[in-house]
Design a protein that fits this description.
single chain, Helicase, Ruva Protein, domain 3, Tetrahydropterin Synthase, Chain A, 21% strand
Length: 272
């Protein structure tokens, strides 16, 4: 059997970015053949992907990338909070965000079609699964474009990105609001809210004892009136601004006061 030297193990590790023990095991399995060991690790990676692929990923990490009039946030899910906080995992997530920005990808499918260092992104994920020993997957991608773009990533757990015009420092205050708001905004304005969500809210309001106690003919108008509260709480421009604001000032009024516009936003949260 060929001698498995430390130099050979290090060479394979440099080629695959996998732990030394996995590299040594691959070289032992292939009698020291470096290229065969690479193939072996790729096959083992595919096996690892199949082994862990069905497991839930309730934890994860977010990353933000901004440049060239665009901003992207991504969320990569993982199984445990321990991995979600791991520096190596977070560095990988940031590389995916940078890839999303550079490639123009604006969805999970579009980003999965890209290559990371010449490797198809799904295969890069399989290599990471093999490396860390638990399932990870690309969960979300949000991209915005505009004359001014700013964003905020709170401890790799909640990321927000906002596009518009004006001072990016003031625009970042809106991104901070988007990350902090509870409930999280579901649309920029009323017209951008998913109609299905609006209908669901109407059903909930209509079913409340307060509305049910009213004459049936009056209920539709009461529901429409109460829907205004939902919009005020859930539409970004109508929410009460949480950062750098005057008392009771909405995001829309804040933007007007500081001379910016808000045209689009995105928000992703790990473990949400």
């Amino acid at each position: 059997m060929a001698e498995i030297t430390a130099a050979l193990v290090n060479e394979l590790r440099a080629m695959t970015n996998l732990p030394m023990m996995k590299c040594k095991q691959a070289l032992v399995a292939t009698n020291g053949d470096l290229q065969a060991a690479v193939e072996h690790l790729r096959k083992m990676g595919a096996a690892a992907g199949a082994k862990f692929g069905g497991r839930e990923t309730p934890c994860g990490a977010t990353a933000l990338a901004i440049g060239g009039g665009a901003g992207v946030i991504i969320l990569v899910g993982c199984q445990t909070d321990f991995v979600g906080k791991n520096d190596g995992f977070r560095a990988f997530v940031q590389r995916i965000a940078d890839l999303a920005l550079a490639s123009g990808a604006d969805s999970v499918d579009a980003l999965n079609a890209q290559k990371l260092d010449g490797v198809a992104l799904p295969d890069a994920f399989i290599a990471q699964i093999q490396k860390i020993g638990e399932n990870i997957k690309l969960v979300g991608v949000k991209r915005v474009t505009g004359a001014a773009v700013s964003g905020y990533n709170h401890d790799g757990r909640i990321a927000a990105v906002v596009a518009g015009s004006g001072d990016v420092v003031k625009l970042k205050q809106v991104a901070l609001h988007v990350a902090s708001a509870n409930p999280a905004p579901v649309g920029l304005d009323r017209a951008s809210v998913d109609p299905a969500l609006v209908e669901k809210e109407k059903e909930i309001i209509a079913a409340t004892p307060e509305v049910q106690a009213k004459p049936e003919a009056m209920r539709p108008k009461i529901v429409e009136g109460k829907l205004g509260r939902f919009f005020k709480e859930s539409v970004l421009l109508e929410q009460e601004m949480l950062i750098d604001a005057e008392k009771g000032e909405s995001v829309e009024k804040y933007a007007k006061r500081v001379g910016i516009t808000v045209g689009s936003f995105g928000r992703l949260q790990a473990g949400s």
